[in-house]
Amino acid sequence: MKPDSSILFAVLRTLSAIVLIFAVDLYFFQALKTITKKWSAKAKSRLYTLYWSHTAYAFLIFLINMIYPFQQWGYWSRIYGFSLVIIPLFCKLPALILLIVDDSIRSAKWIRQRIGESRSPHTQNSENPKPISRLRFLSLTGTTLAALPFSAMIYGMLKTGFDLKIRKVVLRFPNLPEGFDGFRFVQISDIHSGSFVHADYLKEAFQQVKSLNPDAIFFTGDLVNNTAEEAERFETTWSVLKAPMGVFSTLGNHDYGDYVVWPNEQEKAKNFESLLKVHEKAGWKLLRNEHHILKRNGDEIALLGVENWGASMRFPKKGDVNKAAEGLKPLPFKILLSHDPSHWDALILPHHSDIDLTLSGHTHGMQFGIEIPGFKWSPSKYFYKQWGGTYHIKNQILYVNRGLGFLGYPGRVGIRPELTEITLKKGDFYINEMS
């Protein structure tokens, strides 16, 4: 009987993770020994015990996950159990680069020294050339490089990950109907309810949405991480969101349950149906490749919502703008809700010039970066041409929301969670991203 391929894959993945962690920790430990050389034996023993205890903890977490998948863990252990493994590992990486460079230089010097002495037979102790020692300064620098991001990431978990920012954007279009001059809506994206232990943060965020008194609310996908049960826990919280013209939503890549190993397709389909009911019970109008006519002051515009469409092969391509526009009468202005911003560049710009404004999310700004007046940077830019804020080609605009929640790492460094208030104005084309 052949073993289940999914079990073999899980075993190999776990063993690979354990080997990687051990290799990184063993290498980094050499620097730790260098900078503690003059410490007392007792102090070194305590530090080394603490250091290797974390390695043992990491091994244990991965072994437990192999037997009891983390999707089935309690929320506290699921969110923070892996974080205490991944964060220290991630923070050691920049230090390792410096240490590897240092060791490469030392190795080259040692080899050159050995070759030189082998050519000089009268050199004393030529058979045992003195090794080149690692400089304490470089080891100290390396560990400092690890400590700085570690501190930042801990702060990001405790503070920045919940430091909600309301971004205000004014967009002016010449073809916007007069009745929609001054139309204000709030965009919310990437809630990832599975990353929250309780609803306090979500309730506070939704109260801020209510205080903005928008005409409409648009949610652009990823309500959950993996399963509908994550959202069902907060059933009463979702219904807090209300607006005179309605709350409209669409689906993100995480909403399909594709990142869970289901016992069968029926269970996966049942989970998806449960998620759809969450939107329905909340009073949100879920747009699955369909449209809705928004009416204001005697005028009309079109709101189209599509399922997830991502340019990357890793993500579903279920979105269909043509299907969403079926039966749509000619209207002067169209807004599209599409979770993944790569959809805009790949299909919307070349094939749908009548889409005036596209609203997306998905990237989270990778929950890490720098945003100061006049400058913004995130590793997201190396994966997505449009990763956060406003972009435009001619008179077509894309706005990428940085997300309300988080995924994987339970925090944010430099990229704050956001709610976006967008006001549409009639007039010459203009973009004002005020904050």
Q: What proportion of the residues form beta strands (DSSP E)?
A: 15-25%
> Count the helices. How many?
11
Radius of gyration: 27 Å
How much helix, percentage-wise, in residues? 40-55%
Mean pLDDT: 89
Shape: elongated
Describe the overall structure.
With 435 residues, the protein is α/β, with parallel strands linked by helices. It is built from eleven helices and 15 strands. A seven-stranded mixed beta sheet has the order 5-4-3-2-14-1-15. A six-stranded mixed beta sheet has the order 6-7-8-9-13-12. It has a two-stranded antiparallel sheet with strand order 10-11. α1 packs antiparallel against α2, α1 crosses α5 and α4 runs antiparallel to α5 (136-158). The radius of gyration is 27 Å and the shape is elongated.
Features:
18% strand, 435 residues, 11 helices, seven-stranded mixed β-sheet, alpha/beta
Short description:
The chain is α/β, with parallel strands linked by helices and 435 residues long. It is built from 11 helices and 15 strands. The protein has a 7-stranded mixed sheet. Strands 6-7-8-9-13-12 form a 6-stranded mixed sheet.
Structural topology:
Blueprint: H1 5-35, H2 41-67, H3 75-81, H4 83-118, H5 136-158, E1 165-173, E2 183-188, H6 200-212, E3 216-220, H7 228-232, H8 235-238, E4 247-250, H9 265-282, E5 284-286, E6 290-296, E7 299-305, H10 321-324, E8 334-337, H11 342-351, E9 357-360, E10 370-372, E11 375-377, E12 389-393, E13 396-400, E14 418-426, E15 430-433
Parallel strand pairs: 1-14, 2-3, 3-4, 4-5, 7-8, 8-9, 9-13
Antiparallel strand pairs: 1-15, 2-14, 6-7, 10-11, 12-13
